[in-house]
Amino acid sequence: MSKQIKHISHKLIDTLSDGVFSIALTLLGLDVVGLVHKISESKDFNGTMFESWPTFLAYLLGFVVLFSWWYQYHVTSQYVVGTTSMIVWNHGLTMAWVALMPFGVALLAENLNTPNMKWGVFYFGICLFGQYWTILLQRLVVGIFHGDTSTTWADDFFLADKSKEEQNKALLIFYGFPAVLGIIFISLCLVNSWLALAGYAFYVLTTANPVKNLNALLPALTKLIK
User: Fold this and answer.
1) pLDDT 10s digits, 6-60
2) Which DSSP string do the residues of 48-102 spell out, in sequence order?
3) Is residue 2 part of a domain?
4) Total number of domains constituting the chain
5) pTM of the model
6) Cys staple from 79: which of 86, 109, 157, 216, with CB 3.0 to 4.6 Å?
7) 198 belongs to a structural domain
């Protein structure tokens, strides 16, 4: 049997992802740091600080988003054994959205409480939920071309002993729910930006503890895929 090139180690993906997350988290703070000169030069130091609340709010929201993404990323990836082309590109596309999040946060900070607020909230929502649409689209395209959509899971993961069909169904539900929720919230921002932003914030808070959330979700998810 001829020798074949093997897929890359998952550790390489994790190393890259940590670097991308680190840079994205750092970029979030640049807008906040950029306020220093404006605040320091103002005659009303505390007043100018308070007037800059959109930048601080956007930074806080963006930080929780990115850190919770990093948290969930490693919670789930620790159960993935080996890689495939789809897995590698899946992580790559996710990193593309991670790198774009500082852009969404900057748009949100610049346009909060302004006539263009709905568009700032709109595009921040795109950055917030875009990865779920990308993941579903990738699975659809790979499936159409009969590519390998399977994932090898560690023995202690709940999908390890499930059939390929059950695994695909579970992942479709897992990624499909936030994808649909994102469409609803983003559409809502065209009607009421503040309500949509509150929806974003609520969703972000629910992702802050992925271990607890996933453990609570598993029993229901297991029933749905049977």
Assistant:
1) 888 888 899 999 999 999 999 999 989 988 988 888 889 989 889 989 999 999 9
2) HHHHTHHHHHHHHHHHHHHHHHHHHHHHHHTTB-S--HHHHHHHHHHHHHHHHHH
3) no
4) 1
5) 0.91
6) 157
7) yes
